[in-house]
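Module 6 notes. Inverse folding takes a fixed backbone as the condition and produces residue identities as the prediction. Think of it as a translation problem where the source language is geometry and the target language is the twenty amino acids. Below is one complete input and output pair. Work through it position by position during the lab.
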């Protein structure tokens, strides 16, 4: 706890109310003693009032040695939950509400609620991904069955046509039936090769080679490379056919819509099967089993259509449930974010307070304008009643030998011109404020510089539009740079835009030999 100073620089006389902006207001150095239970409510009330600039009483400590570092870490964790929820809302295309609903619960309750929301969203997202992957695999398998049937039908038609040319008129019906049976047996002989037992001898495989085939789906852009590598790996001992899928197919791995082709590769031997399978996996091709029997293919295709319809209904229900949850979260997202920013600012301010272990209270010091000392007392009383603390907070005005910060009372009209002056420099405590003269000279010089009536009329029209719709634009949380540039300059030519801050008054005190910058209405800073 720092002892009060005896010496204090002479303060300027309090200017009349109409001249409060001409010079910085007189400041008082105050000391507050607040119970631990009422500390957060006290900072919130003082932040809403914007009447005090706290000084850092823990300047010799690093960020990890302060009292409320765990609360700031909790704010970071809440921010992580909010970023994930906001990203899911953005990906789903759900509009975010602009209205910030005031969150009354504590930070711990908000963290637990957001943890549950994130866990539910992750579970829904994981289930949806699994369902979508299964659905896409079934769709690809249905294309494989249809396209491979077309390939075999074309081959059979070509085979029948070539044999009809060599058949003599004297051929009997028995010969034709025998040839048809032979073709069916040849088609059924092309069955997928089962895994070969490692104990089986190589001589047996060489004496009894088997023909087999592999079917699957591959991206159309990879098809030419895929066929070339297959030809080189097997030294040309294979036969490949492919067919294009007319519409785009969603890839089960990447969930992206791409153009794909159905392929079928005929080969001989177990080694060729292993080579072809490895090449398919290397090129990201999806392999599917194609039954050799026509009856099994027909039954499998009918079953696929039924399962696809069922999965589509489940996906629609899952998407509707997830969208409803995201819409409910989007309506409260702005309030959650505002509450998190407020709590972060509160705990950053509390980290500048000193903790008295013996009396179990917090001690804070700061600068308050003389005109707001009574309002600060009233804010302390409201915070004590709100927190239900048994001991009221105490505020004393003490002496200090440090130069007070500069404070100018501004409003929405004069704040723009004050920001222009602050861009070049801030007057010291007690000096004249050039912003008063800038209110007249800056628009005049701006008009002289352009000297265009049409351009001036356009600026006037846009400025009147912003002034007329101030409540709508003030409610906007995320304003892009171009719009903010015009919005903040609605009462004059466009100045440098300033981003709003949750607690503009909670700022550290800079060195005493540096002129302090002025801030927005109701704040004091240096």
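Target side of the pair, the amino acids:
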């Amino acid at each position: 706890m720092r002892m009060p100073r005896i010496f204090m620089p002479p303060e300027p006389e309090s200017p009349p109310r109409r001249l409060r902006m001409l010079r910085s207001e007189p400041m008082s150095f105050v000391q507050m003693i607040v119970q631990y239970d009422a500390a957060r409510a006290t900072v919130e009330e003082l932040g809403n009032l914007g009447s005090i600039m706290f000084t850092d009483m823990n300047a010799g400590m690093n960020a990890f040695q302060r009292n409320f570092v765990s609360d700031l870490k909790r704010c970071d964790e809440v921010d992580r939950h909010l970023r994930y929820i906001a990203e899911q809302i953005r990906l789903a295309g759900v509009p975010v509400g602009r209205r910030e609903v005031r969150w009354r619960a504590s930070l711990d309750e908000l963290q637990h609620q957001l943890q549950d929301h994130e866990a539910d969203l992750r579970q829904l997202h994981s289930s949806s991904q699994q369902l979508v992957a299964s659905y896409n695999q079934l769709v690809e398998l249905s294309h494989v069955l249809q396209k491979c049937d077309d390939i075999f039908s074309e081959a059979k038609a070509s085979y029948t046509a070539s044999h009809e040319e060599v058949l003599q008129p004297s051929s009997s019906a028995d010969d034709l039936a025998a040839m048809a049976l032979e073709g069916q047996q040849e088609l059924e002989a092309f069955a997928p090769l089962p895994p070969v037992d490692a104990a089986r001898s190589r001589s047996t495989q060489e004496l009894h080679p088997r023909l087999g085939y592999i079917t699957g789906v591959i991206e159309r852009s990879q098809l030419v490379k895929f066929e070339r590598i297959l030809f080189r790996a097997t030294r040309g001992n294979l036969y490949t056919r492919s067919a294009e899928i007319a519409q785009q197919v969603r890839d089960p791995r990447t969930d992206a819509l791409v153009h794909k082709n159905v392929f079928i590769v005929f080969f001989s031997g177990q080694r060729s099967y292993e080579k072809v399978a490895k090449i398919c996996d290397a090129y990201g091709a999806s392999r599917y089993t194609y039954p050799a029997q026509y009856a099994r293919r027909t039954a499998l295709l009918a079953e696929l259509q039924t399962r696809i319809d069922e999965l589509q209904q489940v996906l629609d229900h899952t998407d509707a449930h997830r969208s409803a949850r995201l819409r409910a979260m989007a309506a409260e997202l702005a309030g959650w974010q505002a509450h998190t920013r407020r709590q972060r600012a509160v705990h950053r301010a509390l980290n500048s307070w000193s903790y008295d272990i013996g009396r179990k209270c917090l001690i804070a010091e700061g600068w308050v304008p003389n005109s707001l000392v009574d309002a600060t007392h009233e804010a302390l009383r409201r915070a004590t009643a709100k927190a239900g603390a048994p001991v009221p907070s105490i505020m004393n005005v003490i002496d200090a030998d440090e130069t007070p910060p500069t404070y100018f009372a501004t409003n929405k009209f004069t704040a723009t011109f004050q920001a222009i002056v602050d861009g070049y420099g801030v007057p010291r405590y007690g000096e004249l404020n050039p912003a008063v003269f800038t209110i007249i000279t800056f628009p005049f010089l701006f008009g002289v510089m352009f000297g265009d009536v049409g351009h001036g009329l356009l600026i006037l029209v846009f400025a009147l539009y912003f002034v007329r719709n101030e409540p709508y634009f003030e409610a906007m949380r995320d304003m892009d740079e171009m719009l903010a540039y015009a919005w903040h300059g609605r009462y004059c030519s466009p100045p440098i835009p300033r981003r709003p801050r949750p607690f503009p008054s909670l700022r550290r005190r800079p060195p005493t030999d540096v002129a302090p910058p002025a801030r927005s209405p109701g704040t004091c800073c240096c």
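Reference fact for the lab report: Residues 191 and 468 are 78 Å apart (CA to CA).
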